[in-house]
Amino acid sequence: MYTLKDELTRKLNAIRADGTYKEERVIVTPQGASIRVSDGKEVLNFCANNYLGLANDARIRTAAVEAMQKYGYGLSSVRFICGTQDQHKELERKVADFLGMEDAILFSSCFDANGALFEPLLDEDSAIITDSLNHASIIDGVRLCKAKRWIYKHADMRDVEETDPETGKSLKGLERCLKEAQGSHAIMIATDGVFSMDGDIANLPVICDLAEKYGALVMVDDSHATGFMGAHGRGTWEHWGVGGRVDIITTTFGKALGGASGGVIASRKEIVEYMRQKGRPYLFSNTLAPAIVGGTLQALHILTQSTDLRDRLEANTKLFRRLMTDAGFDIRPGEHPICPVMLYDEKLALRMADELLDEGIYVIGFSFPVVPKGKARIRVQISAAHSEAQIRAAVDAFTKVGKRLGVI
Description:
The relative contact order is 0.16. The protein is α/β, with parallel strands linked by helices. Helices cover 41% and strands 15% of the residues.
């Protein structure tokens, strides 16, 4: 007799046998460069999205507490009923300015922002063209809209169509997709600004060139860039110098901007106004909590006063990448603080992460379905909070374990 319990037990056992089961380690301290795990051991943390080290910053904690004392714990409402406070409007103004846009609209997460975006703007006569490695939130958001869909080969800007030798599927470049989508009511290109598993940066200059050539909108999810990419940390649009050419930016407050939660869509005022009327996660979800709003406002204040944190992060990233490459590891090339240490074997990635934890380095092995099969890795993430000594200690531990496991 069929039971769901038995079926899920079999599937879970298969996941464990494949070496792709994801354990959740427990930490018992605030987020930081150094943390303590549940057995009491102090370890160096190299796998958080805490890029600027602001997750436990005293200034942000103070601002969050003050906001909660002034505005309460929560709003118990959605925005259009009785859930909009003056601080929400202030954050929308300031984050829009930070991202170089006219206006912005807040969400409980960037996942919700991406879930809200596409369905109101793109009807069944429209076209959505997305990078094949876009984040799951973009994929899910696109699935909610009725537009015709094109997926282009990751980072391939060309007017080509090829066959994937492994899967037999057709692979198209972005320009080929744009040509095929001509005649649609509206066309939107959607891309991550930085791709979270590889740390590579979308080629926004060419994407914007092609969008202007073929009459398309450009949407960028800058979750892994806001706060530190570009000379002033404004994101990939600043990094590439394409301000004013990107139509829509979505991003999170849950990474570099303090690491709590919350997300935003920033764009022209008409798009934002329409999202307030039609964005379902906005209309049917509770307002962003006051403490998060207060903390995020403080994070933006810190970043607009100085570039010290993003400069330190850049230096730390260059040091780690150089030392790991010199040690003989296969590191995906780039300049982003996401530094994938490629291992290609799922069980090896999990074993290496476990042995690194024994050496005092907290990292996680990434395997299918988070990354493609055969592309297992340890994704190291550098923070401005790391000292040079901590970075060198991590490289020493990687080298010790890597030699023991035959990786180098």
